[in-house]
Amino acid sequence: MARKIIIDTDPGQDDAVAILLALASPQELDILGVVAVAGNVGLAQNARNALKVVELSGRDDVRVFAGCPRPMMRELVTAEHVHGQSGLDGPDLPEPEIALQQQHGVDFIIETLRSEPEKTVTLCALGPLTNLAMALVKAPDIASRIEEIVLMGGAYFEVGNITPAAEFNIYVDPEAAQTVFQCGAPITMMPLDVTHQMLGTPDRIAAFAALGNRSGMAVAAMLGFSERFDLKKYGGPGAPLHDPCVIAYLLAPQIFEGKTCNVEIETGSALTRGMTVTDYWHVTDRAPNANFIRSGDSDAFFALIAERIARLP
Ligand code: BDR
Ligand code: CA
Description:
This protein is an alpha/beta fold and 313 residues long. The protein has one domain (3-309): Inosine-uridine Nucleoside N-ribohydrolase, Chain A (Alpha-Beta Complex), CATH 3.90.245.10. Helices cover 37% and strands 18% of the residues. It has helices spanning 13-23, 43-56, 80-83, 105-115, 130-138, 168-172, 174-181, 192-195, 202-209, 214-234, 244-251, 298-309; strands at residues 3-9, 29-36, 64-66, 121-125, 146-152, 187-190, 199-200, 239-240, 256-261, 263-265, 276-278, 290-296. The strands form three sheets. It has an eight-stranded mixed beta sheet with strand order 3-2-1-4-5-6-12-9, with helices on both faces. Helix 1 links the parallel strand 1 (3-9) and strand 2. Calcium ion is lined by residues 10, 12, 15, 40, 126-127, 243.
């Protein structure tokens, strides 16, 4: 039976590839809804981007919701310098014809977790954790009903990408991240430590374009755009592809390796705001609260994504 998921996201080229990967995998993943959150760009634009991505896939049956317009306690920090003014620069996608759902995304998350059988819904978080945390604050009873939270965020050995100490998704809303990491539900995290191994090299991007379908062309255009900034920054053979790690983990966990650790979020210091302090070597007696993924097979990862994108229109 397909695993039920909610995708919480701020698309984002890499979010878009993650969403397409899930949309292309109906046998394994039953997408109950896609919820937009403020992050890479503002909420309204992220929600529009989510609609465009769903429409690109031809899966108009998948509902899209808008969640929170800003972090719980802080001003919103965005990343147009990485993702472009639209948040999804690169492909030329038409304005969406499908509409956003009226219900608030946070209420959708709560209602779904309460109405589905206990521990049968997995939350896939690809952006700042505001919506998930707000749902947990508004309805603490849902924590024990979550099957798993699989999120892209944080870093330990790779430290940071938006500041020297922090990864973007956690940095934007550290209080939300703290709420999520302390909620007691099983968490698997995809930190920069693994996503920095998943490099979109020119060959891998060309393979998407060569699929010949509109989704493959769009993915190639998205990755081609997001390369520009990262190649200059990291100087490697390709730019990291972050968010699809979350969906790939659900489809093929054998691609990844990690271990269970305690992860705490820095919320007090201005210098290290949003740092994911990971007890990787178990030097404290703090209880483990996350499956910290440290490495993955990048060939298998890109092959999986290409094989699935090929199934889309
Ligand atoms: C994360 O930040 C965003 O810009 C990406 O979409 C990804 O979710 C990587 O740090
Ligand atoms: Ca994202």
